[in-house]
Amino acid sequence: MAERPSRRTALTLGLVGVGTVGAGLAGLKIAGAPPFSEPVASTSPSAADATGGGATWAEPPVLASEDGFLELDLTAAPTQVEVAGGTATMLAYNGSVPGPTLHLSPGDTLRIRLTNALDEPTNLHTHGLQVSPLADGDNPFISIEPGQSFDYVIVIDPDHPHGVFWYHPHHHGTVADQVFGGLYGAIVIDRDDWSQRAPRVAVVSDVTLVDGGVATVSAAERRQGRLGEAVLVNGLLAPDLATAPGATERLLLINACASRYLDLDPGGATVRVRGIDGGTFDSPRDGSGLLLAPGNRADLEIDMVDAPVTLTARAHGIGSRGMGMMSAGVEPDDALLLTLVPDARADTPVPVPPASFRPRDLREADVDARRTLSFTMAMGGGGMRFLIDGEEFDATRIDQQADVGTVEEWTLRNRTMMDHPFHLHVWPMQLMEADGIDLRDVVDVPAGEDVVVRIGFDRVPGTTVYHCHVLDHEDLGMMGVIDVAPAVQTGAEVPEDSADVEG
Q: Is 492 exposed, middle or buried (0-12, 13-18, 19+ CB in 10 A)?
């Protein structure tokens, strides 16, 4: 373990700052805002009640690139929004929950001016994109203070995989509050023509709304991983999606929950998985038992029949209530996500074959290094400590070092009584025990088990993080720093003006 960051890392950290962690925004309300107009049920609707007649399907606006560029202003602010059939004050990007869907192609450049209208620091993570984590790229060390703006420049390689990704805040210590509060949105990369019939984008989140705002959570809920009482799809409670009878609906599903796993039950319908996270399978796989950990995404095909088809998230616990975690708030329960309702007036989806991108199979690669990362929990320092290799997160410490062009095998060892979904920024991980090539950027590591992955550090160098994607656990310290050095050292430094935060 390196004790000091490299010069590149120190320079990057010095440019953007780490900032002071402010008070959480959960429970924030605009003065004079009316209370939530229709109380949210203590649990989301069950599949047994689904016969159609729910909320009408809706999606956030789509912002698409033109001539190789997508430029937008994005403001994070507390906003009164329509959610779950009522109104409440949540955190929103550009006034909507979720924020706009960003549609890009390989080779595009994404420019985002993020303005912070919150009362605490924030930043932006383009989750799953294989892009530079340095300077004004997908840099988790940036701190945008209240009232400030920052210009992100995300350059997408021409050979970047097609897939469904997402964006959300990543300022350490405030991530769970800000995502739970409503800050998230979809990113889709492909070369498909959406002018005829776009795929359906379904951003799944959960939230608890009290007295017109987002509920605060207890210390016990943070340790267990918070669960919202209402499970939403695009800000709607159990919406109905009108689909042409006999058609095959394509659904891009994002698990944007802070802690909730989505154990998908298609209600007997035929569901195929075209890809997980940023990976595309050689051929679609059976999706009847698909489990999406927090942060996972799936590209799904659902065959429509003559009766409504329900998509439900079955109750899925993540581990023990021991070690001071009793009475940790909402218990997991079945939740109806959406209902596909046959409607002869609905547009027939246009079949789109999966992308032809095929990554190399790392099971056949020479391994340059092997390492083990151990997830542990321990009492101390006034509460529960969430650790990787016995250490809490420290932004100034490099925990792992690798080189561009190498292949490593990592054993992810969970020695706790809780599941921990492991997320590595920038470089996807190949599951070694899976059939075929299965690349993911969030890998579930069940309690007490080991999971082996291989990682090809073959796209970009840089310094970034890996962590548990139960976002409360990340905020509580279960995160580390990895530095991947260029294959050839050129001596070039990051320009000092490339990561300035504007006041």
A: exposed
Stronger pLDDT, 36 or 355, i.e. the higher one: 355
User: In the structure, what pLDDT confidence band is assigned to residue 85 with cuts at 50, 70 and 90?
Assistant: confident
Query: Residue 440, Cβ neighbours under 10 Å: how many?
Result: 25
CA distance 465 to 30: 34
Q: What is the pLDDT averaged over residues 109-123? A: 98
Stated pTM of the model: 0.88
In three state form, how does the secondary structure of 52-66 look?
A: CCCCECCCCCEEECE
Contact status, residue 138 vs residue 132, Cβ threshold 8 Å: yes
User: Quick check: 497 pLDDT over 60?
Assistant: no
For 15, phi then psi, to 5°, come to -70, -45
Helices and strands (H, E) in the chain, number of each type = 4, 35
Residue matched to tokens 């009290």:
210
Class of residue 412 by CB neighbours under 10 A (exposed 0-12, middle 13-18, buried 19+)? buried
Token duo for residue 183: 């800050």
Strands annotated E in 245-348: 248-255, 262-265, 271-276, 285-286, 291-292, 297-303, 309-314, 335-342
Distance (Å, rounded) from C-alpha 479 to C-alpha 487? Answer: 25
Query: Residue 448 in contact with residue 417, Cβ under 8 Å?
Result: yes
Share of the chain above pLDDT 70, in %: 83
Q: Terminal CA-to-CA distance of the chain, rounded, Å?
A: 37
What is the gyration radius of the CA atoms in the chain, in angstroms? Answer: 21
